[in-house]
Design brief:
Radius of gyration of chain C: 20 Å
Order of helices and strands of chain A: HHHHHHHHHH
Distance between the termini of chain A: 55 Å
Oligomer: heterotrimer
Shape of chain A: flat
Chains: A mainly alpha (246), B alpha/beta (233), C mainly alpha (298)
Structural class of chain A: mainly alpha
Largest sheet of chain A: none
Largest sheet of chain C: 2 strands, antiparallel
Chain lengths: 246, 233, 298
């Protein structure tokens, strides 16, 4: 199970660097745009991307995504490091079709995926999750879901460290090589112990929330429609018009 | 061949927090070392890394001359780790199963394992709870079961992470006596300064920057400036 | 199994957003009515999230990941389990950019609804026989059906030029294999919990097999003609017939791959039927056990 611990730590590292990455980009264009406007704008651009196979149109969106990234101090290298994997994966999946249909579809498909992922990344990298939650609430997503999402987000790292501790303790008691099936079974038992603990923790947290007041109200950045929002809307409209004309 | 050797070891957690930084440490066979430091100074991380449970991000750890890496099962039976929280460690249906878990894996003959189990059950005064499930035990009982489990294979090197935290006076005395009588290499991380002179000869002080500030004998415990600087007192 | 943006047609994505919204909305309604605390749901969701980060080694050198939908259903019951998985998937999408935004509806449908509900009902049906087996089949079948739905969504989308005759078998069979890991882990978790703290499992509570079960059954039955239709699609291979004649390959019921290391399965009509057969059997099994359970609790 050391492999489980080892490999999981490696992939967890990538995950958690994502987790805190919005802190890396404190000041830039998109960071200052109201989250509601931003989300709507990105979704509209996303829809524009995935409703066409015309490479020029897709490229227009991709180009504007990169512009937005630049304006928001999102480094190009960082962006590429986050989008290349799925893009490559998608490219390889459809690659065999070049024999059947030539390169047009394959390139367009890959570009679509790349553009869509880039759009989501710039949204994610410039919007703290709290603002995402406020936005969801604004758009009338039920309280229960939004509150549960908040808890999920807040406890991820802690839950992961708890799990790690259990796995490390188990690993310290492993004295022989395990078969694949034994690894899965032992892992399952460790996860069982983990979920029992999670449940107990959940009960305690529930109690604590009752004491602290379980109506989730936060001081949050007030919604606003100002200059940044206007600029963003103008930019998006411009891109869409360009897209329509291509 | 040293028991445990750390050369320029750094460990960074997945979220980027540094666990320990540039640690150079070597422990001879039979030596008994206490690691002290403030909360968050890296004591637990150091224990995990020195015992081979976490691979250092930078640097090298060698246990009994073998570098910490994949094929570790052979070394494992020579190492015992007593974790701070016994709940992380105990997972079998009964205490008896817990104690027999390690010998069963190594296919040690049942009668032999049983004998060792009965001996330790008496020493740690847990023979009356052998059939209880671990999660129903008191804190002190859990701790004693944990230590007994670790001792079943009579490891050459024993790591203990804050063994006297959250235990009552009686259990604490038992643990101190056990650590004193243990004949092997002992590395113990603790806040409980008063027990250190009874148990260890060498003291490692970690500072608030997750590095080793000083390594010396138990006289370091009287260097109040050092200890205050490092948040120990 | 997260579908990125760009793979699904807007019509399919929209349809599944709608279906998911309905089921998720109903789940939230049930949770509020039964006063299940959302804190527990959120905590379980974050725990499942953490568990999903583990890399389980599999033969071949790569690793598989635990999804946990069936587990969520067994731990919390199907409605709270659905909400928990939705939380996991939404956080993955909007914090880690894992899975597309337009595809979120479909992803929640697959991993948060199909996996959860199938897992829950399979477990309920089998829990009195053997806990590990019940958990194993819940996990395994949940994942496999979730993957088949993903295959259906991608296959039906004209954006993705592989037909459903390819995507369903590929997704289905690949995840039927990977699902073994999910099954073993789920089974082990459940057998551990039931031996130590069985009261934690919501699924062990007495549940009157009510309307919801029949609704679920009705949905599955309604979809089975779709599966049957899809099997027919396998025989429709016009574009590839063109390729076949272009390459000078004779018309052959069993069509080998174009490329040596990447076969294009599913053009084989037998495989298509096989897949719909597996799905059909799964439906029959589920119906059978649920009926058995229903007559047991009445």
């Amino acid at each position: 199970m050391m492999e489980v611990v080892d490999r999981s730590l490696k992939s967890a590292t990538e995950y958690f660097q994502n987790f805190f990455s919005f802190e890396y980009y404190k000041n830039g264009f998109l960071q200052n745009v109201d989250a509601r406007v931003k989300l709507l704008g990105i979704v509209v651009l996303l829809l524009a991307t995935v409703s066409t196979f015309k490479i020029s149109k897709i490229f227009a969106i991709l180009f504007s995504a990169v512009v937005l990234a630049k304006l928001s101090n999102v480094g190009l290298r960082k962006l590429i490091s986050r989008v290349w994997l799925f893009t490559l994966f998608s490219f390889l999946i459809v690659l065999p079709l070049t024999f059947v249909e030539g390169w047009g579809y394959v390139l367009a498909f890959t570009l679509r995926v790349l553009t869509a992922i880039t759009l989501i990344q710039i949204l994610v990298l410039t919007t703290p999750f709290n603002e995402v939650l406020q936005t969801l609430r604004f758009f009338k997503i039920p309280e229960t879901l939004v509150f549960a999402l908040g808890i999920t987000y807040r406890y991820i790292y802690m839950m992961f460290t708890e799990l790690l501790r259990i796995l490390i303790a188990r690993e310290s008691r492993r004295l022989k090589r395990l078969s694949f099936r034994e690894i899965w079974e032992n892992g399952g038992k460790a996860l069982g112990a983990y979920f029992v603990r999670v449940f107990e923790k959940g009960e305690r947290i529930q109690m604590a929330m009752k004491v602290r007041g379980d109506k989730i109200r936060y001081y949050h950045r007030p919604f606003k429609i100002g200059t940044s929002e206007a600029l963003f809307i103008i930019f998006t409209t411009f891109v869409l018009t360009w897209w329509l004309m291509l | 061949m040293k028991a445990v050797e750390a050369v320029n070891v750094t460990y960074v957690y997945p979220d980027g927090t540094v666990g320990i930084r540039n640690v150079n440490l070597s422990v001879e066979n039979g030596e008994k070392v206490a690691i002290v430091g403030a909360n968050g100074s890296g004591k637990s991380t150091l224990i995990h890394v020195l015992s081979g449970l976490l691979k250092p991000t930078k640097g090298v750890v060698r246990i009994l001359g073998v570098e910490v890496d994949g094929n570790f099962e052979a070394i494992r039976k020579n190492i015992g780790v007593v974790f701070q929280n016994p709940d992380d460690f105990l997972f079998n249906p009964t205490v008896r199963d817990e104690l027999l878990y390690a010998p069963a894996q190594l296919e040690i003959p049942y009668e032999k394992a049983l004998k060792i189990m009965n001996d330790y059950a008496k020493i740690f005064e847990i023979d009356h709870i052998l059939d209880k499930p671990p999660f129903r035990l008191s804190g002190g009982e859990k701790k004693r079961v944990e230590i007994a489990c670790v001792m079943m294979l009579k490891p050459k090197i024993l790591f203990m992470d804050e063994p006297t935290a959250n235990v009552d006076g009686r259990t604490r005395r038992k643990i101190i006596k056990f650590a004193k009588d243990y004949e092997g290499t002992l590395i113990i991380a603790t806040h409980d300064l008063s027990m250190i002179p009874d148990v260890a000869e060498k003291v490692v002080v970690l500072n608030l920057n997750k590095e080793v500030e000083e390594i010396g004998g138990v006289e370091l415990l009287e260097d109040y400036d050092l200890l205050e600087r490092c948040g120990v007192i | 199994m997260h579908i990125p943006d760009g793979y699904l047609d807007m019509s399919i994505a929209g349809l599944f957003y709608l279906l998911t919204a309905i089921v998720l909305g109903y789940s939230i309604y049930k949770i509020r009515k039964e006063q299940v605390n959302w804190v527990l749901v959120g905590i379980t969701a974050s725990a499942i999230f953490a568990a999903q980060m583990l890399n389980w080694p599999i033969p071949g050198g790569t690793s598989a990941h635990f999804v946990g939908g069936a587990l969520a259903g067994i731990l919390l019951g199907p409605y709270a389990g659905c909400l928990a998985m939705a939380c996991v998937l939404i956080v993955q999408c909007l914090v880690f950019a894992d899975g597309g935004i337009t595809a979120l509806g479909a992803n929640i449908w697959n991993m948060g609804i199909v996996d959860v509900f199938v897992g829950y009902y399979i477990y309920k049906a089998l829990e009195n026989r053997n806990k590990f087996l019940a958990g194993f089949l819940a996990g395994w079948l949940g994942i496999t059906l979730a993957a088949i739905f993903a295959g259906i969504e991608i296959g039906l989308s004209s954006s993705f030029h592989y037909s459903i005759a390819v995507t369903v078998p590929v997704m289905g069979m690949w995840h039927a294999l990977l699902g073994i890991v999910e099954g073993v882990i789920t089974g082990s978790i459940i057998s551990y919990i039931t031996t130590t703290r069985p009261e934690i499992l919501k699924a062990t509570e007495e549940v009157k097999v009510g309307r919801a079960v029949w609704i679920a059954l009705a949905v599955m039955i309604a979809l089975s003609p779709v599966f049957a239709y899809l099997a027919e699609l396998v025989n429709y291979s016009e574009p590839l017939e063109n390729v076949a004649s272009a390459l000078g390959v004779s018309e052959h019921p069993i069509y080998e791959g174009i490329l040596p290391d990447y076969t294009v399965p599913g053009l084989d009509p037998y495989t298509g039927t096989l897949i719909s057969g597996i799905v059909g059997v799964a439906i029959v099994l589920a119906i059978g056990f649920i009926i058995q359970r229903a007559s047991g609790t009445r």
